[in-house]
Amino acid sequence: MTTPLTPPMPDRRTIKDDKPSLLDYWRFFRALATNPLEIFTTNFYEDPIIVGSAFGVDYVNVYDPDAIRRYLVTNASNYRFDRLRQVVFRPLLREGLLVAEDDLWRRTRRAITSVFTPRYVEGLSDIMVAAANKRVAALAQQHTGEIAMADEMVNAALDMLLDCMFAQDTNLDRARFTSNLELIFENHSMPHPLDFIDAPNWLPRTGAKARARLIADLHDQLGEIVNARRARLDGGGEDDARAKDLLSLLLSAGVGEGEPLTDDQVIDNLLTFMAAGHDTSARSLGWTFYLLGASQHWRKRVEEELDGVDLDSLPPAKWQENLPVLAAVLKESMRLYPAAGNISRVAVEADTLAGTSIKPGVAVATAPWVLHRHKTLWDAPDTFDPSRFMGQASEEIPRFAYLPFGAGPRVCIGASFAMQEMMIILATYLKKFRFHNIGSELPIPIMQITIRPSTPMLMGYELR
């Protein structure tokens, strides 16, 4: 019998009564600035509903699956994005799907839905495999025997996404683009203290100018690509490869319905895919490699499965259903380390969630980090056990106890793209190499929009 693996997580504090002390408040603000995952005290992981107030705003944290279904699905129209969430995301994504609301969101969602059809996503699988094979071949030639897996997955996921988006037709400065995103995530992932008290916008925010420069550079880089592609399209110079990439589909999305995206909206949604989609996949992959490096039992099971499947003769879009052990490992990794740190809304009208009255203006939130480790929903919630997602056990998981891609009308539109992408990268790397953890420090998860490791995740590797 294997020893259960409890992978790294931040320490949890206990508040002994309903009246937090000054020390509790100090710890709260400190965690907010350094690692918001530390905000969640032990009662969050035990109670279905947490009611409180902060900065003059009443809030309700929801960890009851039926209540989550109500505010995210059946009564989703009653819940809008909260102000602080938009303060963080809107300057970067502008009119992108992740921040758009009301009619703009409906028109954008309709247009982009035509891009992420199952048939089209499956059609990208060969591009994904080629991108993964290219990176694996380069890694095999390095002969270093050591790799910073967190960085490797950022680059692998970016290479794959760019090949799918631009058909390898871009002069994008990948290093600069990635560096800009990293700086934004690391330094500007939380609202400024003045935003918590809804101070006027004319009051200066520390770091605002630096963030604006980074964002402007990201938009300018993508704008050059969109402008060049638009000019080529207008000149009739589009070829078959470019006609099938995500950029061309976005430029033509909604045209048939008379609701095309403007070029600025195309840029905003390209950045949404790259900022949200690329980073979430990269972080999920990094954690998955780390967990396999820490569990000899599950690494062996994955290797045995991969050795029993001829990937070259199997359509890449079918890898997930033909590699159930690897798929379960990935799903368990996304349970323990969900890429999205928090789902938040604000109530428009009165409602009731799990017997709790919700008044208009109340902030309602669910942190997948907490939900996926909640003691009322999972057995041994902090341990790594992919068997939860295999066979009958997977069918017994409550639908709204596991939200790696969100739920309801706002569910991640690129979920199938992300799962296909991650399965292809994992299978390609693990078929070729064996990885083991060699870092001297444990990678502690830190929430900076996505849930990131505190270390580069150093891993040793050798050819299998």
Strand order of the largest sheet: 1-2-8-5-3
Describe the oligomeric state of these chains in a short phrase. single chain
Provide the β-strand percentage band: 5-15%
| Rg calc | 22 Å
The percentage helix is 40-55%
Nearest-integer average pLDDT: 89
Tally of DSSP β-strands: 12
Overall 3D shape: globular
Count of helical stretches: 19
Sheet/helix structural class: alpha+beta
Distance between the termini: 26 Å
Q: Describe the biggest sheet?
A: 5 strands, mixed
pLDDT < 50 runs, ≥5 residues: none
Protein architecture, described:
The protein is of the alpha+beta class. Helices cover 50% and strands 11% of the residues. The chain contains 19 helices and twelve strands. It has helices at residues 22-34, 65-74, 83-93, 102-113, 118-123, 125-142, 149-166, 174-187, 193-196, 208-234, 240-243, 246-252, 263-294, 296-307, 319-322, 324-336, 368-371, 391-395, 415-432; strands at 49-54, 57-62, 79-80, 146-148, 343-347, 351-353, 356-358, 363-366, 433-437, 445-448, 450-453, 458-463. A five-stranded mixed β-sheet has the order 1-2-8-5-3. Strands 4-12-9 form a three-stranded antiparallel β-sheet. Strands 6-7 form a two-stranded antiparallel sheet. α8 packs antiparallel against α10 (208-234). The longest helix has 32 residues, at 263-294. The radius of gyration is 22 Å and the shape is globular. It starts with 21 loop residues before the first helix and ends with a strand.
